[in-house]
Design goal:
Blueprint: E1 5-7, E2 13-14, E3 25-27, H1 32-38, E4 43-49, E5 54-62, E6 68-75, H2 80-100, E7 106-113, H3 120-136, E8 141-145, H4 151-157, H5 178-197, E9 206-210, H6 214-225, E10 229-233, H7 237-247, E11 250-251, E12 264-267, E13 286-287, H8 299-307, E14 310-311, H9 314-317, H10 320-330, H11 334-358, H12 362-375
Parallel strand pairs: 6-7, 6-8, 9-10, 9-12, 10-11, 12-13, 13-14
Antiparallel strand pairs: 1-2, 1-3, 4-5, 5-7
Bound molecules: nicotinamide-adenine-dinucleotide.
Nicotinamide-adenine-dinucleotide is lined by residues 147, 177-178, 181, 210-216, 233-236, 239, 254, 268-270, 290-292, 318, 321.
């Protein structure tokens, strides 16, 4: 009997699909409608143009609470199936993120399959055309930055539609959401510290940060300001060196970060990094970071619980960026966004308390809170 599903991140094959982890799985020889039903979809929209090279997918998972805000990912994919799976699980994650944050938004996301050997001219044509695609959806999907897209791309999109956020100040937008995402992660991390250690500060705590790109850098900078001792890694050596030079961080190799003896592990790079291989190496008390889909499978949440590691569920702790662009959408000011981002602390405490009371992994509790509010 062969396996029916494969994790898109770690390529592990499995027969089972469960509520939380079909985010990560893709049925081989899948029936698209069957898969969409399993994920409780929703709508899928495609646009292609061989002249510009545009191949775009917009996934709208759930519009019950309002129009969907979700970033546009622009990366190369091994196959169309991989792109489709990525956008479908990401859009579903946005439904959960908006719901746990109590924002009046549904869940949606888009991917544009990045053509190889892309020129700047082609990039411009693709993003302008993508703007027309977003416009054609009439406002039920609002796009923003994600992996591979930048503020300048949002500005191009804004020439064709108003349904875009994260544009530059010149284009009337609030720019890169990463600093606010990092601020939210900091609040969630502080909640975990309060819950685990009964402390109100991170002064002197050892924090291992995996990935010091946009969010990881801002998070590391804030934690350094607060007196934390940093251990960092990244595949980008310049990014690591900047942390060593400016934040007194200690650098370790990418595969060493899991075994670092520390209080807190903050994953800010990739998904599926808590898995069968890495979990036995962990020597931290808390996992609190920005990366999406950190657990390779739902059972890893239970294994963390058994190990006594407090896990801050990813979509709840990294919601600051969504709050930032949602504020922009609603015409609210940065004070509103700051207050809402601070509420991540309370959300996290609620999750931790309920997880302990019900003897459940924190990720399962976060899913339940969302599903109770969305599906009764
Ligand atoms: P980024 O691309 O700027 O940073 C990611 C960093 O991880 C890069 O520096 C990259 O070199 C590094 N990296 C990649 N593979 C690595 C590996 N094997 N080991 C160590 N480092 C590695 O992305 P970002 O915007 O900072 O986002 C980081 C994570 O947070 C992503 O998972 C993203 O989905 C999530 N997230 C980001 C935002 C946001 O506002 N940017 C919001 C919510 C969630």
């Amino acid at each position: 009997m062969g396996a029916d599903y494969m994790c898109i991140s770690c390529r592990k094959k499995t027969r089972a699909v469960n509520t939380a982890h079909n985010r990560n799985k893709w049925r081989r020889n899948m029936d698209l409608f069957e898969y969409a039903t399993e994920l409780e979809y929703g709508e899928l929209h495609l646009k292609t143009n061989p002249k510009t090279g545009l191949r775009a997918i917009v996934a709208l998972h759930n519009l019950q609470n309002g129009p969907a805000i979700g970033g546009c990912r622009f990366i190369e994919y091994d196959s169309t199936d991989a792109a489709l799976n990525d956008v479908m699980r990401l859009a579903r994650g946005m439904t959960y993120k908006a719901a746990i944050t109590k924002l009046p938004h549904g869940g949606g996301k888009s991917v544009i399959i990045r053509p190889p050997n892309l020129t700047e001219e082609q990039r411009t044509a693709i993003f302008e055309e993508f703007g027309e695609f977003v416009e054609s959806l009439g406002g039920k999907y609002i796009t923003a930055e994600d992996s591979g897209t930048r503020v300048a791309d949002m500005d191009l999109i804004s020439q064709k539609t108003d349904h875009v956020l994260g544009t530059s100040a010149d284009a009337g937008g609030s720019g890169d959401p990463s600093p606010v995402t990092a601020r939210g992660v900091r609040h969630g991390l502080e909640a975990a510290v309060k819950y685990k250690y009964g402390r109100d500060d991170v002064d002197g705590l050892r924090i291992a940060v995996q990935g010091v790109g946009n969010v990881g850098w801002y998070l590391a900078s804030e934690l350094h300001e607060l007196g934390a001792e940093l251990i960092v890694t990244d595949i980008n050596e310049e990014a690591v060196q900047r942390c060593v030079d400016e934040l007194d961080a200690t650098a370790v190799a990418p595969d060493e970060i899991f075994g670092v003896d520390c209080d807190i592990f903050a994953p800010c790079a990739l998904g599926a990094i808590i898995n069968d291989e890495t979990l036995p190496q962990l020597k931290c008390d808390i996992i609190a970071g920005a990366a999406n889909n950190q657990l390779a499978e739902e059972r890893h949440g239970e294994l963390l619980r058994q190990k006594g590691i407090l896990y801050a569920p990813d979509y709840a702790i990294n919601a600051g960026g969504l709050i930032h662009v949602a504020a922009d959408y609603a015409g609210k000011d940065s004070d509103w966004a700051r207050t809402e981002t601070e509420r991540i602390f309370d959300t996290m405490i609620e999750i931790f308390e309920r997880a302990d009371a019900d003897e459940l992994p924190t990720g399962v509790v976060a899913d339940r809170i969302v599903e109770e509010s969305l599906f009764g």
